[in-house]
Amino acid sequence: MLSSLHFHHVIKRQGGIVMQAWYPLGDRGYTAELLNNETITQIADAHGKSSVQVIFRWDLQKGVVVIPGSSNPDHIKENISIFDFELTDEEMNQINTLDRNEKHDWY
User: Fold this and answer.
1) Sign (positive/negative) of CA torsion 60, 66, 27, 82?
2) Which of 16, 21, 70, 89 has the highest local Cβ count within 10 Å?
């Protein structure tokens, strides 16, 4: 079963469903806030990665299928370059605590 729900680091989803993240960078005005989040940038710096890569890696390690959208070749390369590192349990938990329990219904 596939559920196509809006998902990013500030929304909790549970229930044994494979999540598909269509807006994993926050979308609709939240992207800059997310990419500049101090916790995420510190983790990114520790791994020599970008905030985008840390967010996508967090999604992947949570079992989320990430569907980033880009036509920019540099962004596409950055988006796929998440398989050469792993976040520690502590880093995963740090990002998990960023949950603001928000519901986003724009559609």
Assistant:
1) positive
2) 21
